[in-house]
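Example for tutorial group B:
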């Protein structure tokens, strides 16, 4: 007869389950309380970062110091709350784990940025006006740069490391509010890393490049995006800049007509010849087709020296959109028959001028007036903070490229976005790219638009990186008759007026090879070559007004399928939409 008690084994199991459930409740409560505290701390960090940015920009260092201390305290607290063994254990739980890991990673990044980047930055800001970069009275004071180089280097290294770690957080695996926060962190850290990295690069390069150790001469090549080239656009005008003691002056201005085609092409890389034959080595206008600006810059310098002689210390290439950014700081500009505002300057320079002034020689003169007027306004009448911001925005969009004839300077430039080189892939980022080059022989790219998507995953059991490019001709249906012949090309190069011919080259991750290539779902003949260890596929596209086409290239092999894949694209008048999508295998 039973005495009503459970068997000993069942009692043991019941006690064990009860203890486990109790511990689980306690642990959930523990991480919940700590999570609420960590999120609150991180919200305070975000709010403080915005306040600190404003304070430093306004030169309010007395106000910046307590804000920085508050940020440091909140970041340290968030890190402590999310780094204990219990929190880390929850990080391995399926589905929930990525959320715990993401909060922990964000807190650790915020703590490291606060400790390793904010402190040296505030020290620099106390001795140097970061907002103006020493820019006063048309010159840059070069003396303080030696003192700020080391702390800026420390801050830049910390922010670069933080950026790389932020990129590795799998936001897609977290809940939507947290995913948004992770993306916001990435954006903020990337912005800070770009700005501070640029400032550090400036502290290293400016003292010598602006003539601190002796006069320097630079060729300034102005690119016209209405006739697109790999680095932005065809060279429309060209000039000489002189730098000495931090002061920059504009010297000789020349037209492309001053550079007739060469009978014998200048030396070019095998990849450039494979894509564009020897045209960049013979025609000044085509040099910016060269994908790597370290090669293009040296070639532009050689053309200038061959025409005008003298020693050239470097080349600076800018496109027409830079004028729009600068005019936001300098104000309206009058040149030729036009008065341009920041809102109208692109339309005037890249479209209206051809209807108003049919003579190409007069067009070149008006372009030169615009360049010299903007240059003078920037050096004498612009607000330094606004000018620095305009230049930083232009550089961030890839619209400023610099090559130096001095090897030590070129080594620094080549490792930055300003160098215009194709970066090397690493564990922190894999790169693919899209290069557009006009084949119309006219100015129809004012009407072109692009969108680019990337996707990574597996196709046919192999790691795959896919790049999809959609290219559209938005010209009016009656473009053949409504647009000037100089804009349409008038069929001189075999492209019907109103249509757009474009060479579109797509390159993949280092070490990968194309496994599938199509245009609008069908195969067609393409050019193939390599850029270093990258495979390149180039389509020759022809679009009538209103037409659109989509090119899809899949890459497999070494480097393919990496989640952290970035797309580098030719700077266009209207920046293309670049997005990530789910992989839909074409093969």
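The residue assignment follows.
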């Amino acid at each position: 007869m039973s005495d009503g008690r459970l068997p000993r084994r069942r009692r043991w199991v019941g006690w064990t389950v009860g203890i486990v459930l109790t511990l689980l409740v306690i642990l959930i409560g523990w991480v919940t309380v700590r999570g609420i505290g960590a999120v609150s701390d991180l919200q305070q960090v975000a709010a403080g970062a915005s306040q600190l940015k404003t304070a430093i920009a306004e030169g309010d260092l007395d106000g910046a110091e307590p804000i920085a201390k508050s940020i440091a305290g909140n970041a340290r607290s968030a890190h402590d709350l999310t780094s204990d063994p219990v929190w880390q254990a929850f990080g391995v739980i399926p589905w929930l784990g990525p959320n715990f890991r993401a909060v922990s990673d964000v807190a650790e990044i915020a703590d490291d940025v606060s400790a390793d980047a904010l402190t040296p930055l505030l020290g620099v800001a106390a001795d140097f006006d970061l907002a103006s970069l020493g820019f006063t009275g048309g010159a840059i004071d070069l003396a303080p740069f030696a003192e700020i180089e080391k702390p800026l280097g420390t801050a830049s290294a910390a922010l670069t490391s933080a950026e790389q770690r932020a990129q590795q957080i799998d936001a897609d695996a977290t809940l939507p509010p947290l995913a948004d926060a992770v993306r916001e962190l990435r954006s903020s850290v990337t912005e800070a890393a770009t700005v501070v990295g640029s400032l550090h690069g400036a502290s290293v390069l400016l003292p010598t490049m602006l003539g601190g150790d002796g006069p320097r001469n630079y060729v300034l090549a102005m690119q016209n995006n209405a006739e697109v080239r790999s680095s932005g656009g065809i060279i429309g005008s060209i000039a000489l800049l002189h730098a000495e003691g931090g002061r920059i002056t504009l010297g000789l201005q020349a037209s492309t007509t001053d550079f007739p085609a060469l009978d014998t092409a200048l030396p070019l890389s095998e990849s450039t010849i494979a894509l564009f034959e020897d045209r960049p080595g013979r025609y000044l206008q085509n040099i910016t087709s060269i994908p790597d600006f370290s090669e293009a810059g040296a070639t532009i310098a050689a053309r200038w020296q061959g025409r005008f002689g003298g020693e050239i210390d470097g080349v600076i290439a800018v496109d027409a959109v830079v004028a729009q950014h600068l005019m936001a700081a300098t104000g309206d500009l009058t040149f030729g028959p036009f008065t341009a505002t920041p809102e109208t300057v692109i339309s005037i320079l890249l479209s209206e001028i051809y209807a108003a002034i049919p003579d190409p020689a007069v067009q070149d003169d008006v372009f030169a007036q615009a360049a010299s007027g903007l240059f003078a306004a920037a050096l004498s009448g612009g607000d330094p903070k606004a000018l620095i911001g305009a230049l930083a925005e232009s550089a961030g969009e890839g619209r400023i490229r610099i090559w130096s004839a001095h090897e030590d300077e070129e080594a620094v430039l080549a490792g930055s976005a300003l160098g215009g080189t194709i970066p090397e892939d690493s564990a922190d980022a894999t790169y693919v790219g899209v290069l557009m080059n006009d084949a119309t022989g006219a100015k129809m790219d004012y009407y072109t638009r692009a969108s680019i998507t990337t996707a990574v995953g597996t196709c046919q059991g192999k790691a795959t990186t896919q790049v999809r490019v959609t290219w559209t001709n938005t010209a009016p249906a009656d473009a053949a008759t409504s647009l000037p012949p100089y804009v349409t090309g008038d069929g001189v190069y075999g492209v019907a007026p109103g249509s757009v011919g474009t060479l579109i080259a797509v390159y993949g991750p280092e070490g990968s090879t194309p496994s599938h290539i199509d245009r609008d779902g069908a195969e067609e003949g393409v050019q193939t070559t390599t850029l270093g260890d990258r495979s390149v596929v180039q389509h020759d596209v022809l679009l009538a007004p209103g037409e659109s086409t989509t090119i899809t290239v899949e890459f497999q092999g070494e480097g393919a399928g990496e989640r952290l894949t970035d797309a580098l694209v030719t700077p266009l008048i209207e920046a293309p939409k670049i997005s990530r999508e789910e992989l839909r295998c074409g093969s």
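The chain has three domains: 8-209, 216-410, 422-580. Compare this with the pattern of hydrophobic and polar residues in the output above.
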